[in-house]
């Protein structure tokens, strides 16, 4: 039984079947390791995980107790079914308790990948965050030109090791991860030795190169064998909330239930809407869960799922963004692959109106929020997962999710900014500028179809001089496939999977709400 975050027995680096590191499972014969012991298969109870969730849970518990006590005392004092009416107070109480009870699957994943900041890297060691570590402009010696020139394929290579050549007097020094590997009398000798080292390092296991928050990392192998429990605390609390709601409804006389027809239908529509939303969200989760995340170094054509870091695809500098035309330093942003900004204004004013019921004039406060202007831009970028990089054609995608705003302001800048929106009703104005973006260095999740790049767009050569590495000749485009919806998300796959629940947890309470309200309607006629 799971009680809270600190009590979940989850070690992402160990296999519980034989108590050895997961990376060694295959060596011990654990080929079919079913490490689903992290969560019970059928039932898991969870308690609130923080102070404020406990406050909400306690308030719901008090409301539940008051409703039960009032119902019992009412039933003892009356022979009619009116004593069931106080049960209606139990329904919101149980709903509050269910809402405050965490999802056990999300709790388990939070242990492995703490959700400290959405859209940022949360697992150490993190990917290289400085552009100088991305092999964007690694040089190689060109005999025809007689000079060092940038290698256009270097940015597609795996991240390690970091190799460079520097000059010391008349000698050339080969450095690997800042350690001296040899000295050479000529540039061509140093360059050839550097290429040999790169080719040799390309034989390293992908697990040594892949980012620590990548789903294919060994530390998460057992986690993906776990499944959400069929039933959880939230499920049972929601179910009993619906049952108490139906019981309280039957406490009303038949005529009264007919008069409450609109509320009953409204609850049915609420259940139907929640069922539709749950189905839509669960479909995206299942797409991510059922699709094996590709490792760029070994990617093939077809529909694939990627997790990696946003990096520039070429040396052409991205346009500088001045939000709403403001030239102020705090309003200027660089190194953004995808961005959108908006300026919204809210006007508050007081107006007089005639109350026809009380036959007199009154005043009231009105508020209106309107979108004034905005802008957006997308540019292609390189998705790199530590083992290699692949081109993402952002212009072919329709579904973007850049996460929460990376910047906001409620006061206009001073240099070259657009004008304030003017009041339409003579009231006071408040202003809000927001920027949403996918920047170089950010984590990105991509579901896309992988196809060949146009012939004229392919960089010449082979990555690390290894003919089996062809990911630089491919690109990810936004085309859907059966059960695969093309999209770009700021964050990793874990941000998609954390809300995962069982089918009962997703659809059970909403389906029961619809059925129970149908029963109420049928018995009222």
Structural account:
By secondary structure, the chain is α+β, with helices and mostly antiparallel strands. It folds into three domains: 216 residues, no CATH class; 79 residues, no CATH class; 192 residues, no CATH class. It is 28% helix and 25% strand. The chain is built from ten helices and 22 strands. A hairpin with a 4-residue loop joins strand 15 and strand 16. The longest helix is centred in the middle third of the chain and has 30 residues.
How would you describe this structure in keywords?
single chain, 525 residues, alpha+beta, 5-stranded mixed β-barrel, 4-stranded antiparallel beta sheet, 22 strands, globular, disordered N terminus
- Which word captures the global form? globular
Distance between the termini: 45 Å
Rg from Cα = 30 Å
Strand content: 15-25%
Q: Report the mean per-residue pLDDT as an integer.
A: 83
- How many discrete structural domains? 3
Tell me how many strands there are.
22
Strand order, largest beta sheet? 10-15-16-21-20
**Number of separate helices:** 10
Helical content band: 25-40%
Backbone structural class = alpha+beta
Low-confidence blocks of residues: 1-37
For the biggest sheet, the summary is: 5 strands, mixed, barrel
Which helices and strands appear, and what pairs or packs with what?
Elements: E1 14-15, E2 20-21, E3 43-44, H1 51-77, H2 87-100, H3 104-112, E4 139-142, E5 147-150, E6 163-168, E7 171-176, E8 179-184, H4 187-201, H5 206-209, E9 231-232, H6 233-249, H7 254-259, H8 261-290, E10 302-311, E11 321-322, E12 332-333, E13 336-355, E14 360-378, E15 381-384, E16 389-392, E17 400-401, E18 407-409, E19 428-439, E20 443-452, E21 474-477, E22 487-490, H9 493-497, H10 503-524
Parallel strand pairs: 3-9, 16-21, 17-22
Antiparallel strand pairs: 1-2, 4-5, 6-7, 7-8, 10-15, 10-20, 11-12, 13-14, 13-19, 15-16, 18-19, 20-21, 20-22
Helix pairs in contact: 1-2, 2-6, 6-10, 8-10
């Amino acid at each position: 039984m799971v009680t809270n975050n600190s009590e979940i027995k989850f070690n992402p680096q160990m296999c519980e079947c034989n108590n050895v590191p997961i990376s060694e499972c295959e060596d011990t014969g654990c080929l079919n390791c079913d490490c689903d012991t992290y969560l019970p298969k059928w039932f898991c109870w969870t308690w609130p995980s923080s102070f404020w969730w406990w406050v909400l849970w306690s308030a719901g518990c008090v409301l539940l107790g008051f409703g039960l006590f009032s119902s019992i005392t009412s039933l003892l004092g009356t022979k009619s079914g009116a004593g069931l009416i106080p049960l209606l107070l139990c329904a919101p109480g149980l709903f509050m308790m269910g809402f405050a009870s965490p999802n056990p699957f999300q709790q388990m994943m939070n242990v492995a990948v703490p959700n400290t900041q959405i859209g940022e890297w949360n697992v150490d060691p993190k990917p290289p965050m400085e552009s100088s570590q991305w092999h964007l402009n690694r040089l190689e010696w060109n005999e025809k030109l007689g000079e060092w020139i940038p290698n256009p394929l270097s940015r597609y290579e795996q991240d390690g090791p970091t190799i460079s050549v520097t000059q010391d007097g008349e000698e050339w020094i080969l450095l690997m991860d800042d350690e001296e590997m040899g000295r050479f009398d000529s540039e061509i000798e140093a360059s050839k030795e550097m290429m040999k080292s790169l080719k040799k390092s390309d034989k390293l296991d992908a697990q040594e190169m892949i980012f620590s928050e990548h789903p294919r990392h060994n530390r998460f192998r057992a986690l993906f064998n776990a499944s959400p429990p069929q039933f959880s605390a939230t499920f049972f609390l929601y179910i009993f909330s619906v049952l108490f709601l139906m019981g309280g409804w039957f406490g009303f006389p038949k005529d009264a239930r007919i008069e409450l027809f609109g509320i009953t239908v409204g609850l049915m529509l609420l259940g139907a809407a929640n069922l539709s939303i749950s189905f839509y969200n669960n479909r995206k989760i299942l797409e991510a869960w059922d699709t094996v995340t590709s490792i760029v170094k070994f990617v093939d054509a077809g529909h694939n799922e990627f997790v990696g870091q946003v990096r520039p695809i070429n040396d052409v500098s991205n346009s500088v963004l001045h939000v709403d035309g403001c030239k102020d330093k705090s309003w200027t942003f660089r190194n953004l692959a995808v961005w959108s900004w908006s300026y919204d204004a809210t006007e508050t004013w007081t107006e007089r109106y005639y109350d026809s019921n009380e036959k007199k004039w009154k005043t009231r406060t009105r508020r209106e929020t309107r979108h004034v202007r905005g802008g957006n831009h997308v540019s292609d970028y390189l998705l790199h997962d530590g083992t290699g990089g692949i081109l993402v054609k952002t212009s072919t995608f329709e579904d973007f999710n850049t996460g929460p705003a990376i910047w906001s302001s409620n006061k206009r800048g001073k240099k070259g900014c657009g004008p304030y929106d003017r009041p339409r009703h003579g009231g006071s104005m408040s202003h809000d500028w927001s920027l949403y973006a996918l920047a170089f260095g950010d984590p990105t999740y991509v579901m896309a179809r992988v196809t060949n790049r146009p012939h004229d767009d392919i960089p010449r050569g082979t990555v690390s001089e290894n003919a089996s590495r062809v990911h630089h000749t491919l690109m990810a485009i936004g085309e859907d496939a059966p059960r695969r919806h093309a999209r770009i998300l700021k964050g990793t796959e874990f941000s998609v999977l954390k809300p995962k629940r069982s089918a009962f947890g997703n659809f059970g309470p909403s389906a029961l709400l619809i059925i129970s309200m149908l029963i109420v309607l049928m018995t009222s006629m």
